[in-house]
Every structure is written in C-alpha cells, then in structure tokens.
C-alpha cells in the first residue's frame, strides 16, 4: 500500500522478539533489533545504527543471562546499561526540565560570600572526581577506591543524575558519601544535570555539606595552594540545548574569584564542571563553514582575567562534563588542562567515532594516555592530589598503580610576597 511502513521482520529467537516489542515504534531501535535478529540467524544484518545495535545486543545478553539464572552477569550488564546511551531513563531529564523550567534556581550571589574562603590543612590529600553521581554499583566501587586513599577533601566536579532531584541527590550522592567518607570535607560543583529540576536538590545538598555557594575558594593556611571552583551549570539548564550552549559564569562570581586569585600568593587550581576547550566534543553551534570552535570563548575570557590577576600562578584546571579522561598539552595559556569526567557514566569501547571531532577547528593536542577497559566499557577513574608534594596521580578502577603521575606545581616554592 502506498505510504505504508515496511513490515517488521519477526524471528524465532524469543528474546529478539521481546526486544522488538520493547523497541515499540522507535524506528531506529526497531531496525537495530531487526539487524540483531538477522545476525543471530547468520544472515547479513545490513547497515544499522551502531549505537542502537549495541544497545539491543546488550539487552539481548541481559535477557539471556536472566533466562539462565546467571545473576552475576545480570548485575554486571545492568550496571553497564544504567546511565549509558542505552538507558531509556535519560528521557526523564527532559520531563524534569519541562516540569521545572520556570522554577528560579536558588543561586547564591557573591555579595553573600563577601571575602569568605574555605580552609584545608597544609598537607591535605585531595580527591577529585567528575560526573560521579549515578548511585550505581560502578559509582560505589569508584567511591570505595577513593576512600582507600584516605582523602582529607573530596571535590566532585558536578552532575548528579538524571536531573538532580532531591531524591536522586539523597540516593546517589549524600548517602554513599557519608557512608564511605564520614570525616572528609566534601564539596560539589554545579553541573548541568544538577539544575534540570530547578536546583533544589543541589542547593539542599550544599547546605548539608556546609558549602557556602555553588562557587568557592579552598585554601591551605600556609598560602601555598588553593582550589577555586566556578559555577558553569547555572547557565546550562536546558537539556535540549546542551550541545550548542556556550555556558559562562556570572559577572559578580567572576569578580569574587578574580579577587581571591589575585590576593593569594601561592598557586591556584581552577575547577569547573564544563570544559573551557575540547578536542573531543562540540562546543557551541556550528560556524558558518560547518566547523566547531575548540574553545568556549566566554570561559576562555574568564580564564584570561584570572591569569592576568596571578601571572604564573594558575597551576592547572580540572573539569568534567565529557565522560572521558583527557590530558591536554598547553593551550590558550593554560599549562595543564585535565578532563576528569569518567567518574561513573559508562562509555562504550566500540562506540563509533564522533563526527564532530573532525570538524573542530584548531583543536588542542591530547597526550596519549588511554584508559583500560572492562570489556564493553572503558574504566572509570579519579585524581588524587597531594599538597605536600604537588603531585597529581590519576587512577583507573581496578588498578592499584596510577595511570599517570605529574607534578602540577612546585610545593617547595615560597609563596609570592
């Protein structure tokens, strides 16, 4: 019949049939389920969307394990599927945003802080992890590995999934953190997922943590080290514009951070949820020629102001947002830019290349430090910064030795008079 949809192929494999039913009217997943069924029969599946085909293949493996009462494999696959691109619950972010789009985010202005700074001990051990708040077994395993280092401070670079609701914050962040690190100082940045539901969960969380605002400076009394954190999540609350949005920090927040950086004689480590630049992901809309910027010009302008306020005293910048571990060569005047977004969200090893990468104009150079994998997904990880030595060690899950070690600043240097 003209205009009708082609009939869907049905298969004898009952698990494939069940997946076809679950795919419903989604044409992409339906085609992938059909390709999976053909491949199970030894036939050529043809061209199917690689991401969708991977998802239905994992779903098939999960059903197979369940049918065989292989509970260990079921648990493993559930953890792998949760929060990955295969997880249909990502749609909840849209629902939460639509429900709370008119809710004002209870952002705390710089005037409320005045000149307030937070304090840590001189030889503190600081753990840094990004995009960790999933509440999955993977996240708990990462947290337990972090706890084994006995950090004095844990800094989370933002994102409690899916939408930062009060229930998600309690289950995915507060409860596991208080269990694993009851005595540590815990601070968390504001990511885009933290404000999809209006930010009530996030701001309730930082009140419980004793964190004065969504941005802060944390200093050692000997004036050698400080961490200064920005709120880049405030202006990225629309999940429908996540890829094209150029987020930024509030002008009075920038004034506060600039003043704290300028007055501090030691070395400053910058923190944010969003990346100031990237060689791997889209930043902002496409330009007239179809290419993409490598740099967020708004965050780059803030960085230039910070750098001018403290010449030679910006030691590094850590961020998350991209679910990757990326170590960059010097770029836009920043000697050490590090993405630590691989805290808990699964990323598939055989994911197709991101077509954006080839279109990024003048991208920063990446050091070749590949993560290991646990089969279908890459390993997760975190950083441990020791203020007594100025060393940062980057760990991946399940491996005792650091993946990479570097000195991010000279801890022996006397603070500027």
Structural account:
With 417 residues, the protein is an alpha/beta fold. The protein has 11 helices and 15 strands. Residues 1-25 and 411-417 have low confidence and may be disordered. It has 2 domains: 14-81, no CATH class; 99-407, Metallo-dependent phosphatases (Purple Acid Phosphatase, chain A, domain 2), CATH 3.60.21. It has helices at 14-23, 27-40, 50-67, 71-81, 91-100, 110-113, 137-147, 166-180, 200-209, 251-263, 297-309; strands spanning 118-119, 125-129, 153-156, 185-188, 216-219, 225-229, 267-271, 292-293, 314-319, 325-328, 337-340, 360-361, 381-386, 391-396, 404-407.
CATH superfamily annotation of the largest domain: Metallo-dependent phosphatases
Shape: globular
Structural class: alpha/beta
CATH C-level of the largest domain: Alpha Beta
Q: So, CATH architecture of the largest domain?
A: 4-Layer Sandwich
Largest sheet: 7 strands, mixed
Q: Provide a count of the helices.
A: 11
- The spatial strand order of the largest sheet comes to 1-5-6-7-9-11-10
Topology-level CATH name of the largest domain: Purple Acid Phosphatase, chain A, domain 2
Q: How much is the average pLDDT?
A: 87
Percent helix, as a range, is 25-40%
């Amino acid at each position: 019949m003209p205009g009708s949809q082609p009939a869907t192929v049905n298969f004898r494999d009952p698990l494939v049939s069940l997946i076809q039913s679950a795919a419903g009217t989604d044409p992409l997943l339906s085609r992938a389920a059909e390709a999976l069924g053909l491949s199970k029969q030894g036939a050529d599946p043809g061209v199917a969307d690689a991401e969708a085909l991977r998802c239905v293949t994992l779903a098939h493996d999960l059903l197979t394990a369940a049918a065989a009462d292989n509970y260990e494999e079921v648990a493993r696959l559930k953890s792998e599927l949760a929060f990955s691109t295969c997880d249909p619950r990502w749609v909840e972010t849209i629902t939460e945003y639509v429900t709370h789009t008119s809710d004002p985010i209870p952002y705390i202005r710089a005037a409320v802080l005045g000149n307030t700074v937070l304090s840590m001990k001189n030889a503190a051990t600081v753990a840094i992890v990004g995009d960790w708040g999933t509440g999955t077994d993977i996240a708990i395993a990462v947290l337990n590995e972090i706890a084994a280092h006995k950090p004095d401070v844990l800094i989370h670079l933002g994102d409690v999934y899916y939408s930062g609701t009060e229930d998600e914050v309690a289950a995915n962040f507060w409860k596991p953190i208080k269990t694993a690190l009851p005595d540590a100082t815990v601070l968390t940045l504001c990511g885009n997922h933290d404000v999809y539901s209006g930010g009530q969960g996030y701001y309730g969380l930082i009140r419980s943590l004793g964190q004065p605002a969504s941005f802060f400076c944390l200093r050692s009394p000997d004036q050698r080290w400080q961490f200064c954190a920005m709120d880049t999540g405030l202006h990225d609350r629309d999940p429908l514009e996540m890829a094209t949005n150029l987020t930024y920090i509030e002008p009075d927040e920038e004034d506060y951070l600039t003043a704290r950086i300028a007055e501090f004689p030691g070395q400053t480590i910058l923190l944010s949820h969003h990346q100031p630049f990237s060689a791997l992901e889209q930043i902002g809309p496409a330009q007239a020629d179809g290419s993409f910027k490598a740099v967020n010009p708004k965050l780059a302008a803030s960085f230039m102001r910070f750098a001018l306020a403290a010449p030679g005293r910006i030691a590094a910048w850590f961020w998350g947002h991209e679910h990757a571990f990326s170590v960059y060569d010097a770029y836009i005047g920043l000697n050490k830019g590090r993405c630590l977004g691989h805290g808990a969200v699964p990323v598939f090893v055989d994911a197709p290349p991101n077509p954006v990468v080839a279109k990024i104009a003048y991208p920063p150079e990446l050091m070749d430090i590949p993560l290991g994998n646990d089969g279908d997904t890459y390993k997760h990880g975190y950083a441990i910064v020791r203020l007594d030595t100025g060393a940062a060690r980057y760990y991946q899950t399940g491996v005792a030795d650091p993946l990479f070690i570097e000195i991010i600043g000279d801890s022996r240097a006397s603070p500027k008079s």
